[in-house]
Amino acid sequence: MSSGHIKFSQFQYIVKLCQILRQWRGKAHRSIRRTPPDVPSGHLAVCVDINHTRFVVRASYLNHPVFKKLLVEAEEEYGFSNHGPLTIPCEEVLFQEAIRFISRLIQGSNLTVAPSS
Asked: Which pairs count as long-range contacts for 87-92, CB under 8 Å and 24+ apart, including other chains?
């Protein structure tokens, strides 16, 4: 093999990597645009109860054991193929209490929890 052929294949490899990066950037940009404008960075929207009341909660709450239990219940009720917003199958009052509890533990504050409009 000549050194010219090796340099050409390295160039092709770099070009291919650039194309892949461009595609991933495009996908990331499109996914950012799908986030509703009323959902701040680091938060997500969830629907709760049979009325599907919408709440905006911190994404960090997903790691808390109480929220994980709610996610397990959602998976058992709806499965992973649920399209659209994350739906939590529990009463609004219970969900609000869970979020207040998590908020006090994580932030040490009494955050007011109210449905988003």
From this structure: 87/46, 87/47, 87/48, 87/52, 88/46, 88/47, 88/48, 88/49, 89/49, 90/48, 90/49, 91/48, 91/49, 92/48, 92/49, 92/51, 92/53
CB 67 within 8 A of CB 58: no
The alpha helices in the chain, defined as continuous H runs, are: 3-33, 65-78, 92-107
- Are residue 15 and residue 59 in the same domain, yes or no? no
pLDDT tens profile 89-106: 999 999 999 999 998 888
| Same-domain pairing of 24 and 55 | no
Do both 25 and 67 map to the same domain? Answer: no
Question: What is the residue whose two structure tokens read 């499965």?
Answer: 79
Q: Are 14 and 25 in contact (CB under 8 A)?
A: no
pTM check: above 0.90: no
